Amino acid sequence: MEDCEYSIKKLKQWFVAQQRDLPWRGNPSPYAVWVSEVMLQQTQVAVVVPYFERWMRLFPTIEALAKAPIEAVLKEWEGLGYYARARNLHEGARTIVEHYHGKIPTSAEKLKEIKGLGDYTVGAILSFAYHQRVAAVDGNVMRVLVRYYCLSDDISKGPTQKKIRALANELLPQDESWIVNEALIELGATICARMPKCEKCPLRETCMAYAMGKAEQLPIKSVKIATQLLFRLVPVIFSQGKVLVGCGVKGKVMADLFEFPYFDIDNAPGEIEDQVVMMREKLKLDLALSAKWQQVMPQVKHSFTRYRALLMPHLYIAKEPKEIPGYDWFTIEELMSKPFSSGHRRIFADVQSLQFAS
Ligand code: ADE
């Protein structure tokens, strides 16, 4: 226990001196904590900062977010990926306005009922915004504690995570527990990273994994999510100044996001000619559209959730903007305000730079 008090003192001293200046730190509103923590869930701090700042300018309050159309919300999220996070924030804002007069609840039970809020985000809101003595254990903190206590339990297992959350709750001091939570996150993000920089760590003297020479081997994580490769032919079809795009179906990964039509194929056909032949077939069969091939466009690699997609776009011109179920024809200008999935947004950027599209 003495060790623990000593470690906490060292940790706080280190944090006060070394912490990064981030826009959601200081004395953040519950809303700012919520937005920043959701953005940080699967995205690096450096990427999040400009998104967070723009988001807070555009949707400065929960009411503003609740009132905004989902299309505008997704447009702001464009490029961050894992769009369910944005949809949940939007739905959560509507719930909070409807049921809690626009004030984020102060109890874990009520917070957990809000869409998208898990143990970590609930802990972060209660700790950073309301200064309650509650742990906020994300992947960073988990790594720090597993090493500090030299735990060889598998952190992909629920019971291990529960045990670590309990340990975190125990070690929090009565005073300024929110600083300790933030300091643990900061330590995990900057020093006790996947490759630990033990020589710079304020907890080196008391860290059990360091003492046993095991810091680099921990944590143990058995479950690795297998990634799946996707190969997609993407026809970018112009007709009379408009382009054909579809909008992802509700409940699916890309719900409410715009994408060009695409066809999944089993393997990446190496030769451009093979792609053209396959695409001709698909255009006829799947879209019942006759369009004239113009040119191949740059390939785009795009990762989302557990997929890694290779997008192979080709430019076409169709005589008429024929009606096709599930798709619509838009001008480039109209498309500029639409939210695209990350990969298709990059294709759209290439489309905009085509001389022909201006
Ligand atoms: N990662 C998750 N939460 C964070 C926070 N509040 N500050 C920095 N990195 C984080």
Tell me the number of structural domains: 2
User: What is the fourth-level CATH superfamily of the largest domain?
Assistant: Hypothetical protein, domain 2
Reported CATH architecture of the largest domain = Orthogonal Bundle
Helix percentage: 40-55%
Helix count from the secondary structure assignment: 15
Radius of gyration: 24 Å
| Ends distance | 69 Å
**What is the average of the pLDDT values?**
93
CATH class of the largest domain: Mainly Alpha
Decide which structural class fits the backbone: alpha+beta
Low-pLDDT runs: none
Strand content: 5-15%
Write down the overall geometry: elongated
Overview of the molecule:
- The chain has helices at residues 2-18, 30-40, 45-58, 62-67, 70-77, 84-100, 108-112, 119-129, 139-148, 158-171, 177-190, 208-211, 272-287, 332-336, 342-352, and strands spanning 228-239, 242-247, 258-259, 263-265, 291-296, 300-304, 307-318, 327-330.
- The relative contact order is 0.10.
- α1 (2-18) crosses α11 (177-190), α2 (30-40) packs antiparallel against α8 (119-129) and α9 (139-148) packs across α11 (177-190).
- The chain contains 15 helices and 8 strands.
- Helix content is 46%, strand content 14%.
- It folds into 2 domains: 2-217, Hypothetical protein, domain 2 (Endonuclease III, domain 1), CATH 1.10.340; 228-357, Alpha-Beta Complex (Nucleoside Triphosphate Pyrophosphohydrolase), CATH 3.90.79.10.
- Strands 1, 2, 3, 4, 5, 6, 7 and 8 form an 8-stranded mixed sheet that branches.
- It is an alpha+beta fold.
- A hairpin with a 2-residue loop joins β1 and β2 (242-247).
- The mean pLDDT is 93.
- The longest helix is centred in the N-terminal third of the chain and has 17 residues, at 2-18.
- Adenine (ADE) binds at residues 22, 37, 40, 45, 138, 185, 189.
